[in-house]
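in:
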């Protein structure tokens, strides 16, 4: 009987912990939203993940981000090449650091 009370006590402590941290309220609100959804989703777990913020970016968002990344990488490479060219042109007008080649 003492084992049963210890187990109940741990359960009650855990329940209070979940309540205090807001987990119960959050889960309840997500489940209510699922219940009130007029057209139930095919995958309830995905619905819950999406509403809890664990689903990650949408595939369309991911594609947009990949395109933007590719564009930025191309621009970066172009700017690095331009920087290299400008440094090379600048070296024609500035004397070398060791003083040789200066007129």
């Amino acid at each position: 009987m003492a084992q049963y009370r210890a187990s109940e006590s741990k359960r009650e402590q855990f329940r209070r912990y979940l309540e205090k941290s807001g987990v119960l309220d959050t889960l309840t609100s997500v489940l209510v939203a699922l219940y009130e959804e007029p057209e139930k989703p095919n995958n309830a777990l995905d619905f819950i993940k999406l509403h809890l913020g664990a689903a990650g970016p949408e595939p369309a968002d991911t594609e947009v981000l990949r395109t933007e990344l590719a564009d930025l990488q191309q621009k970066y490479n172009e700017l690095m090449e331009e920087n290299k060219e400008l440094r090379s042109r600048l070296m024609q007008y500035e004397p070398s650091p060791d003083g040789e080649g200066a007129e």
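note: The mean pLDDT is 85.
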